[in-house]
Amino acid sequence: MSEHGGNREEIADYLGINKSDLIDFSANINPLGLSENLLNVLKKNITELQHYPDIKYRKLKKAIANYHGVSSSYVFPGNGEAEVIYLLAQVLRPRHVLLLAPTFSEYEKAFNLVGSRFSYFYLNEEEGFEINPINFFEFLDNNSQIDCICLCNPNNPTGKVISKKLLTQLLGRCSVDNISLILDEAFIDFLPNTSDFTMIDELTNSDNLYILRSLTKFYAIPGLRLGYLLTHNVNTLQKMALYKIPWSINILADVIGQNILFDESFQIQTHNFINTERQRLQNELEKFHQIKVYSSSANYLLLKVTDISEFRNKLLNKRILIRSCSNYRGLTSNYYRVAVKSVEDNQYLIEAITEVCRNETDSNS
């Protein structure tokens, strides 16, 4: 089985059901789905499939640059954020990378391919899986071999944000010690106050800063794939271009990226829905004494489940797929991640868990 979320086709085949009958809480995709603006762009440009996209993606870069208020020379688009992570690893080739535990697994895979070694800063459950600044900088002081730091903000799978104050202090440290600082902001668009946390306004202050962004989650286009890197370090971007496969971004992803970033109505609608429904879902889940819920700023929640054996499989029997976090470093098999989905889907999840807990209680009595 795939270790990532979103593998509904594989799971459906395993269960012997149609994939459309499976409710997927394992992939953190905007539950509002494709916006009306995005659908219109698709319809208008469907015949563009007859043509190659611009190999340099000039209009796409310009649209991303305009949205963030930076130079288009700072923008490196990719076929999903994953492509950019692997290309960046190929170019930077750090000797020793610092990662959080738990966090997104692709960082370690990408840097492992280029022979990097790793140190891990373990996030404590007692502190809500948030970074303790004093302990974090003390860890850096004691590990001078580190020449690259990769942080996910908000973190996956915890949904915890890292304060801009901490990141600004860390960037200063990285600039002095020549440490590459990679910030993955794949889920930051789900925060209505994004400017309070993103470090994009610091790009021109350091060539050591690399910011990863994804359009896949917020705009619900995992089947198209589109992400990008922002950095002031043009030298790194030029080297990445040498490794990049030509036309890796398809033409529909290209034109969508040019048009959806300024869809303010959809952005506001998403923020309002996620903030309200995430809190409702958390409140309902906290009613189960077997489940501990960790508050989140993203569109997903981390759960710790006790006294229920085979929790994921029991939900699978009800055609609900959640993300097991057993393969996240620092977590165990009783941790799970669930996406915030539609009101109807979230209610179905609550009802299914209610039945699972009731059956578990009856079997133990």
In brief:
The protein has helices at residues 8-15, 36-45, 58-68, 81-92, 106-112, 133-141, 164-177, 234-243, 251-259, 264-285, 311-316, 343-364; strands spanning 23-24, 75-78, 96-101, 117-122, 148-152, 180-184, 209-214, 227-230, 291-294, 300-305, 320-321, 323-324, 335-339.
**Main sheet record:** 7 strands, mixed
CATH topology of the largest domain: Aspartate Aminotransferase, domain 2
Domain unit count: 2
Low-confidence runs: none
Kindly name the structural category: alpha/beta
The CATH homology group name of the largest domain: Type I PLP-dependent aspartate aminotransferase-like (Major domain)
The whole-number mean of residue pLDDT values reads 95
Name the shape in a single word. globular
How do the SSEs run, as a string of H and E?
A: HEHHEHEHEHEHEEEHHHEEHEEEH
Top CATH class of the largest domain: Alpha Beta
Strand order of the largest sheet: 2-8-7-6-5-3-4
Radius of gyration: 21 Å
CATH architecture of the largest domain: 3-Layer(aba) Sandwich
Q: Please report the distance between the alpha carbons of the first and last residues.
A: 34 Å
Number of helices: 12
